[in-house]
Description:
15 strands; globular; seven-stranded mixed beta sheet; alpha+beta; single chain
Amino acid sequence: MKQIKPSQSYIDRDRASSLLKKWAPLLEHADDATPAIKDDHTKLNTAILLENQERWCFEASNAAGNSGVFGTLQGAPGQGGQPSSDFYATGDARLPKILIPMIRRTFPELITNEIVGVQPMSGPVGLAFALRYKYEASPLGNTALDNGYGSSSNTASPWTSASQGTEVGWNYLNTRYTGTSASWLSGNAANFPFVADDQGVAQLLSNFELTSNIPQMVVSFEKTAVEAGTRRLAARWSVELEQDLKNMNGIDIDNELTNAMSYEIQAEIDREMVIRMCQIALNGGSGAGYSFWYAASADGRWLGERNRDFYARVIVEANRVAIRNRRGAANFIIATPRVCAMLEMLPEFQWFSVQGNVNTQPVGIAKVGTLGGRFAVYRDTRTEAQYQVGTRGTALEYALLGYKGAEYYDTGIVYCPYIPVLVQRTVGPNDFSPRVGLMTRYGVIDHIFGASLYYHLIIVSGLGTAFVPGTGATFL
Length: 476
């Protein structure tokens, strides 16, 4: 079993290793319908969710003879008056045989694992926290007792130019804070000015010796609560349908509907994450959070050059994401099919092989390739279908740029699953038709320091419309 890295494990390392060892047969299993789990963090998250699900099966299931969740008896009588395992009620012995494989198959296939952070919750309410480091305006000691610092020819104290409460090491950096300002750093030009905060150098020992006038920084503990929400879905069918499909087609309608409902919930979770990122970028404001790209005003003469112009915009905005979050440039793109077509025409685009382990589940968002060795490209097939109906008359084309680091916390959004799947079965009291319900519980938390620092939305306009030059010329 692979060693758990301390930075990858947000639970005790011994417990993490124990869970991975316990669920190794499921985690290591792979076949045509169940791709192998390659990411260690996703493997650990899956093990935690399997453990949560097993605990729920033991705790929520009623003991034999107690009433079921819908008030029905626990177990239908079988031969000799003994309870039968073939019934629809809480405590059904078939639940683990359905739930455990379902979690192993569906959870690693979530695109959410690749575009946002994932941190499973051990309870219905969790706590997200962060440490924020700030400049302090006052020095550590008493300035009246200083003997060394006052001998410096530079009279300005280094901490006075730093705003109190300004975050350390973020967009504001004061190089004079731990040293002093050097008057000989006087290089300047009309079009290349230097601010005083960029003219800091190390203080001489003779000027900084035996003094308590030391700049200091403070740390604040910031926290916010995350509470698990719920998604529910139910289905029912007639006994006649179940009998006919079983006898004529060999189809178990129970398993078919359960799988269909699980994929629907999976698709909705993925969709929620994408829409959350788009909304976060829009809330970031014009310029920082989102920008526009117009095909008609692109600096290009034909389709290929305009595609290059769009790619240049993508690179510029991706690098600006790195400036805002101080973690890294955007490394994934979620785009509509038309915008994906523009990216796929670029020579830097590299397709994913169909024969490889590619996420092919039809849940609306698919990973289609990489761009320039720096962007993973995802095609959002749901957007056009949703936004071309109703009040919106035109298609909404976009490219969402985002950054996700190697650690689960290095992202703008953190997805916190609690109970991946809850299945409850019963029989309708009026028509005696079988019924099944699915429920999942999870929470979502934005980055405490600002989720908008990790995303940028490029709104693409003018695709499929005529523009000058060229009579009737149409770009894509």
